[in-house]
Amino acid sequence: MGEILKYLFFAIALLSLGRVAFSQKSYKSYKQFKAKDYPETMFKIRRDSAHFLNYSIELIHVLNVSYPGIQDATSTEIDPNFFDCRGWLFLKKGEKVAHTIYYSNMNAVGGCSGVYIPAVQPRKDYFLVVKNGDYDGNIIIIDSTGNITKEKGGGSIQVSSDKRYMFADYDSDEPGVTIYDFEKHKTLFTPDSPEVDSNLKGQFQIGAWYYQDNKYMARVYTDAEEGENPDTLHISVATYDFKKNMLIYSKKDKGFLKSTNALQDYDYYEYSDGMANCNCGR
């Protein structure tokens, strides 16, 4: 019996080695970037960098172009090493890495995937980075001391005209927004914060933010605006209440929000024609 078990374990070991021909480690647990683990025949590597005060930000994306997602033709089990898009963010001071953020697999799921640096930063004492994909976007906020705050966000970034408040809508199939106070170095509101929902029914999404009537408010898109009998006279609006730290929803006339009151966008595309590709950092 001992000899049989010995040969059985040996056979299992050989199968495990053959399953991952280009690497001996499972990518699910392997977080250190090594270019040799991603051969050019199956993956494309992209590197980007930026400078912020005494720091440098380095981004690395690995795009899967031909590595298969199944182990063999007779199995439907997903290969544990398979991924669509993998990414690293390194915050460096000199040659020393101060922080690392790692995403094992960023799936576009019909939208964008990857880690992106906005073409223009709203402030000189902060640096913003956006991660999209997996229905779970992030807004990565780096301050002048090198501290990193990572919240649910992604998608669009808008900043108040005085550059104090940031509004980062949640890149997800769930509604939400992260509101950050640059002056207090504090996250005020996140998609997990409590809300006051008095009128909305069904699914909804938070859209662009405005400063109007001395309040910050967002356009909200609801199921009531679609379907067989849409409401064509009203829109839904979410107003942020600083004292209660809540979003309060209300109905407004169709033309209530004025485009001149919209907050400035800080897009991560390098192009203004809206045709930029956003697949795994590209």
Can you offer a commentary on this structure?
- With 282 residues, the protein is mainly beta.
- The chain has a domain at 194-265.
- The protein is 6% helix and 39% strand.
- It contains 1 helix and 17 strands.
- The protein has one helix at residues 2-19, and strands at 43-52, 55-64, 85-93, 96-103, 114-116, 126-132, 138-143, 148-152, 157-159, 165-169, 177-181, 186-189, 204-212, 215-222, 234-241, 246-253, 264-265.
- The strands form 4 sheets. A 5-stranded antiparallel β-sheet has the order 12-11-10-9-17, with no helix packed on it. The chain has a 4-stranded antiparallel β-sheet with strand order 1-2-3-4, with no helix packed on it. Strands 5-6-7-8 form a 4-stranded antiparallel β-sheet, with no helix packed on it.
- β15 and β16 (246-253) form a beta hairpin.
- The protein is globular and about 60 Å long.
- Residues 4-27 and 271-275 have low confidence and may be disordered.
Number of helices: 1
Number of strands: 17
Q: Structural class of the secondary structure composition? A: mainly beta
| Percent range for β-strand residues | 35-45%
Distance between the termini: 56 Å
Low-confidence stretches: 4-27, 271-275
Average pLDDT level: 83
Cα shape: globular
Percent range for helical residues? Answer: under 10%
Radius of gyration: 23 Å
Q: What order do the strands of the largest sheet run in, or round the barrel if closed?
A: 12-11-10-9-17
